[in-house]
Every structure is written in structure tokens, then in C-alpha cells.
Amino acid sequence: MGARVLLAAVFAFAALPKLAGAHSTVAMFGQIGAGQWLRYLVGTAELAGAAGLLIPRLAGLAAAGLAADMAGASIINIAVLHSAAVALTIPLRAALALRARARWEHATKFLAARTGR
Question: What is the domain count for the chain?
Fold first, then answer.
């Protein structure tokens, strides 16, 4: 449970400046060039993912979603921003992918129950 809580805290704290419109995040997403809507989308996804990590039934799906978020962040950090932040996004993505894999059975049972399959 400790790793799950730590990952949730990391993503909750990462989401808040994006959603609050901190100057650094506004500037960073301006550099990306996709528009500020992406900042809101990423911040919302990170906050929702953080909450999902704390709910055992959703932890695997949340980890998979956040791993995808970190894959995108890694690509943007390398290709667009030329940022050393990739040294953080790649290990986070790996940790989340491992977490998602460990919870895969729970995630598929949860989805099956919700879709009636």
C-alpha cells in the first residue's frame, strides 16, 4: 500500500499546479504548442489517476492510465521540451506499468462486472 500512496501523492501534487494555472505550467504547455486545454486535461487525468490509485478496485486501471500519461510526458520531454525531466518520467512510467500489471486481474474483473461480461 505504501508505494500506491506515494505514487498517488506524486500525481496529486503534480496535478495541482496544472489545474491552478501556475506560471511555470502555463509556460511549459505554451511551449508544447497544443494549447492550454491540454494542461487542464493532463492535470485532471493526473488528479483522477491519483484518486484511482487509492481505490483498490481501480488501482490497476489508474496505474495503466497514468503510465500512458507518463509515456506521453516522456515523448514530449524528449522531442519538444528537450528537458531532463525525462529522467523522472521514465522511471515513473515503469513503476506504474508494473503496478498496472500486478493489478491486471483485479482490473479485468472490475471491468467485466461493469460491462456484464
Answer: 1
Q: What is the DSSP string of 39-75?
A: HHHHHHHHHHHHHHHTSTTTHHHHHHHHHHHHHHHHH
pLDDT of residue 17: 98
Q: 9-26, pLDDT tens digit by residue?
A: 999 999 999 999 999 999
Length of the chain: 117
Containing structural domain, residue 24: 2-115
Q: What confidence tens digit (pLDDT) does each residue in 31-67 have?
A: 999 999 999 999 999 999 999 999 988 999 999 999 9
pTM exceeds 0.85, yes or no: yes
**Other C-beta atoms lying within 10 Å of the C-beta of residue 75:** 12
Long-range pairs for 16-19: beta carbons < 8 A, 24 or more residues apart: 16/43, 16/47, 17/43, 18/42, 18/43, 18/46, 19/43, 19/44, 19/47
Residues 6+ apart with CB under 8 A from 74: 86, 89, 90, 93
